[in-house]
Structures are given as C-alpha cells and as structure tokens.
User: Which sequence fits this backbone?
C-alpha cells in the first residue's frame, strides 16, 4: 500500500481503527520525499527526525490504550513564512537565514494540539512576494505535473508538496492569490479564508490588511478538516474575528438546491487562455446540472483591482519590512562603518530584487507629495471594489470565476518582467481587497497536461457555502484519481 | 510613455527605505518602476471625491483584551536569536562620539 497517497481524513480514520500506525504513514511519506524531492524541491527545511519521534510517541500511546489528540495521523507541510518554534523559518529570504523562532504561530499551536505532525517548511517567493516561487533566495520549485513549469506562487512549495504526495496537507498564505493560484497550477484544493477567520499571530507580515493563512489539500474534505482546526478568534491577533466557527465537515454533503451563483462578466473581458475558458464553461454546466442557479452579474470596478492591490500591498510591505535592520535577529552585513550603513548594507545584501522593488514602490506611494495620489486613492478605490461585492452578494450566494487566466507558465517566462508577473494575479486579487473567502479547485487539464482551476468566491464568513459547492463539484472531478507521473518516471528509471 | 519617476527620485526613495542600490540596479529599477507606475495611473481615472478610504476591511470596531499579566518570551531564548548579543544587550555601532 502507498500510504503517502492517503489524504488526511483517510489517514486519521485508519489510525483510529488501528489498521495502520502513524509511523507507517510517515515512513511512506519519507520514502516518497526521497524519491521525488530532488526533482521538485518543495521543501526548504525537513523536520523528519522530530516527526519520526512524534509518530513513535503517538503509536506507543495508542498501543497502551492512552488517549491521543483527535487528528493523529495527519502530516502537514508548513509554508516557511509561518513561525515554528525551534524549526528554522526564513521566509525564503537571506535576511532571515538562521532564524529559529522562539515561539509557535497560533495555527501551529492549534495543529499540534490536534495531533498533526509537521513534516517540514516549504519554499515560497521571498516574503510571499511573487506568483511563481522563483523569487525564493534558496531554490526553484518545479511543478510536479510538468517539471519545466512553475508551481505557482507564492505558496508554490506547499502546493507542489501536496500534489506530489510529499505531504497529506499543507498551510499556505494568501495576500493576493498565493494559496489559490498555486492550488490551481498544481491541481489541488486551496482556500483563502475570510480576513479575520484565522489568526495571523506568527505569520511573518507582508501586507497586514490582506494576509490570511489557509489550507492546501488533496480534496475538499481535508480542506474542511483543516479549517475546523485553524479557524477562530485569538487574543494575540486583534483583527481575528470572534464569530462562531461552524463544523465545516457538515458542508461536505450532496445537494445544491436553492444556491444562486453569479458569473462576473468583467472577468471575461480580460485576456484568458482558450483552454481555461473551455474548462470553466464545462464546470458551469456541471454545477447547473447539480441544481444551482446561474446568473451573470457585474463587478464594475474589477479593472482597477490590480493597481489598487499593488499600491496597498507594497505600501504595507515597505512598512512591515522596515523591521529587518540587522540589529536584533537574522542577517547582518559585515561591511559597514556606521549605523546608517549597517542598515543599508544589511538590507541590500539580505533582500532579493523583487522585495527591493516592492519596498521602493511602497515607500514611493507613502512618501510626501505622492501619498494622496497613490496610497489614499488606492484605499478609496478599495472601498468601491468592496461595495461591488456587497451589491453582488445581495442577489447571489457565491461567485464563480477561473482562478488564473492561464495554466502554469514556464520557469523563467515572466521573471524579468515584473508587471507581466503581477498581471497573472488578476482574478485572485479583488477577493483579498474585499476580505472575502475563496477557494480554488481543479476543473480540468490543458492538452499539455497542466491543471486548470475554478475559483469559488463567497461573502464574508461564507466558507461553509463555498465548501459545499466545491465538495459537490469534486464528485464530478478526476483530480484525486489523476496523479502527476513524476514518481512513476523515476521508479521506472531505477528499475 | 511619460517618465513618472526619475533616477534621482529612486535614489531618494532608496535612502528613505534604507536600501543601498547599485548603479545597475538604479537603471533597472528606474525602467521597471516607470512602467509599473504608469500602469498604476489607471486608478486616477476614477472620481473618488466622496468615497471614504478603507483600511479595515471586515471589522471597524477595535478589539480589547483583558488587562492581565501574561508571560513574555524567555529572555534567554530571545537573546540567543542572533550573533550580535553581548551580556544581554544587542550590539550595534556607536551612534554618539
């Protein structure tokens, strides 16, 4: 049996029934990592020694009939911008090389209490700034479906690890699409929760008014399971909301009667790949057949989302990243003659090009003389974008769009043209500006064998409804059965 | 395309952001930032005279915590984070002669 292929809910169930042990699951996952990681490079740090010890401890307790946490059997990979006590956390940046956090993020505390075991930390664009994971200071992650393609970004390592069976589930973060776009490019499920649904305590900040932590999983049930664990209010994050967390697994049941779904027409005025459009149209037919009612609607300010987002996100980033000054932790340049040059040299040597570009753009938008024209203006347009969604959700329950205008692009294709890279986020960004929840699920493949993603957008705290539609759609879907062939290719070679 | 930002302004912004950029980087960033900022100008088309800016997207009310004593991180662990600690202090270059 290939236990690495199990999803989290299956593994937890089999452990509960004592049909397999936690160590057996982990050993198969480790075998899988040994087999494919060299080609994929999803992880920055592996935590296998500690993981094996934890698995052994749980197995011993189960054997003795002692009580164990409810989700023992779950193996998770964590994006490297979420702090993990005693496990190096770099944000994919040289400036945090050698940073071993003295505390756990709230989501990590919750996962550990639930019995999940952390396999390792996954690669990302430096400080989550990027759409391809190519901006990592350490390594380039490849798309397991076609190795010459990007896995998407910025949670590219998490998405690649899950689809390649190097982990059952993963945590990512989404500021402008960084969970949904890689989920789409890798053909898995990725959910960006409502702003305030999941605590950001211990998430290394990029743009504080947009960032959210969320799950990347092989199927919708695992997504619901993970949301049950990580959601909820937290006194250490003042923006986390004290709103009851429903049991999201209850939404994983069949039937879509009385659900009204809107299709925003403005999204189809943007450039879109033909195969993406075809897969999307096919998905609409399926969802309609399942009982949902479809309606074309308008989100008039869609075209202004991208500049609005990049102005706000970069302004917040330039302020958040001011803390990396080489004084208290992380990297410090050796080449300085006074305090000012220590700051400048440390930051110039420690940050990569895209981070510098965004700090410059953000500083410019906040600087005297430009604040009103750029930053304040963007915040006002943000109001208009949010009002578009408010209006739409008076008439409909959910919105459907493609997750990305194209399937995974080639490594190196957009890295020299930052504006072209920014434009690949065009369908995911409005959701972050409006603070909404949205999920990406596979809805087909291109002729080249690249996955295509369907985005389901909900009103604030509408995660349950989204999960319901996604679960029903998944029943028609091939993704769990279809797997990238990377493992097989290597196995054949070895034979 | 009209130039939005000059090389000199990039230098000034870099100084504000405490970044030392090389001559090559300055050239590259000037071209790239101009093309990006030119695209960003799109939002100036919109009339936003009577629109309130949005900073907090979901909740507009503040959240208060009980004023209770909680443990902080252990001093020993915090001071073992970097190579620049000495006797419980962060070491940095002298700022006064």
Assistant:
């Amino acid at each position: 049996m290939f236990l690495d292929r199990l999803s989290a809910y299956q593994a937890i169930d089999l452990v509960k029934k004592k049909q397999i042990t936690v160590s057996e699951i982990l050993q198969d996952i480790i075998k899988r990592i040994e087999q494919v990681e060299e080609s994929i490079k999803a992880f920055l740090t592996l935590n296998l020694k500690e993981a094996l010890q934890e698995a052994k401890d749980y197995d011993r307790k189960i054997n003795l009939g002692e009580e164990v946490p409810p989700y023992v059997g779950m193996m998770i990979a964590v994006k490297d911008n979420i702090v993990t006590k005693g496990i190096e956390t770099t944000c994919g940046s040289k400036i945090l090389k050698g940073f071993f956090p003295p505390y756990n993020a709230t989501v990590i505390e919750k996962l550990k209490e639930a019995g999940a075991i952390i396999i390792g930390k996954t690669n990302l664009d430096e400080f989550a700034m990027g759409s391809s994971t190519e901006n990592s200071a350490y390594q380039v992650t490849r798309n397991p479906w076609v190795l010459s393609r990007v896995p998407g970004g910025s949670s590219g390592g998490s998405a690649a690890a899950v689809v390649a069976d190097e982990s059952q589930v993963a945590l990512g973060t989404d500021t402008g699409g960084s969970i949904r776009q890689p989920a789409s490019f890798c053909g898995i499920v990725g959910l960006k929760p409502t702003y305030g649904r999941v605590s950001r305590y211990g998430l290394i900040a990029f743009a504080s008014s947009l960032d959210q932590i969320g799950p990347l999983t092989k199927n919708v049930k695992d997504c619901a399971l993970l949301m049950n664990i990580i959601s909820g209010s937290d006194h250490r994050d003042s923006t986390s909301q004290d709103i009851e967390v429903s049991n999201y697994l209850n939404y994983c049941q069949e039937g879509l009667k009385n659900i009204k779904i809107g299709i925003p027409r403005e999204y189809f005025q943007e450039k879109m790949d033909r195969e993406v459009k075809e897969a999307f149209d096919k998905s609409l037919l399926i969802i309609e057949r399942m009982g949902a009612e479809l309606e074309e609607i308008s989100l008039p300010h869609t075209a202004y989302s991208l500049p609005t987002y990049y102005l706000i996100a970069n302004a917040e980033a330039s302020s958040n990243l001011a803390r990396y000054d080489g004084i208290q932790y992380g990297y410090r340049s050796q080449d300085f003659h006074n305090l000012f040059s220590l700051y400048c040299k440390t930051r110039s040597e420690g940050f990569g090009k895209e981070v510098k570009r965004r700090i410059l753009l953000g500083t410019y938008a906040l600087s005297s003389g430009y604040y009103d024209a750029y930053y304040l203006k963007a915040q006002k347009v943000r109001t208009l974008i949010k009002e578009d969604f408010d209006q739409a959700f008076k008439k409909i329950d959910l919105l459907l769009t493609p997750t990305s205008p194209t399937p995974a692009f080639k490594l190196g294709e957009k890295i020299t043209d930052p504006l072209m890279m920014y434009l690949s986020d065009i369908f995911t960004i409005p959701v972050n500006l409006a603070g909404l929840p949205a999920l990406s699920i596979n809805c087909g493949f291109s002729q080249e064998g690249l996955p295509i993603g369907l985005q389901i957008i909900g009103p604030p705290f509408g995660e349950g409804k989204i999960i319901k539609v996604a679960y029903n759609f998944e029943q028609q879907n091939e993704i769990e059965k279809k797997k990238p062939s990377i493992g097989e290719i290597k196995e054949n070679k070895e034979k | 395309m009209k130039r939005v930002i000059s090389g000199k302004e990039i230098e000034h912004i870099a100084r504000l952001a405490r970044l030392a950029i090389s001559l090559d980087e300055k050239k590259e960033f000037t071209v790239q930032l101009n093309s990006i900022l030119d695209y960003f100008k799109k939002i100036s088309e919109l009339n936003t005279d009577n629109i309130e800016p949005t900073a907090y997207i979901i909740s507009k009310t503040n959240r208060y915590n009980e004023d209770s004593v909680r443990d902080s991180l252990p001093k020993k662990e915090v001071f073992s984070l970097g190579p620049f600690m000495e006797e419980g202090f962060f070491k940095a270059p002298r700022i006064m002669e």
Remarks:
- The domain at 3-302+382-494 of chain A is CATH 3.90.1300.10 (Amidase signature (AS) enzymes).
- The radius of gyration of chain A is 22 Å.
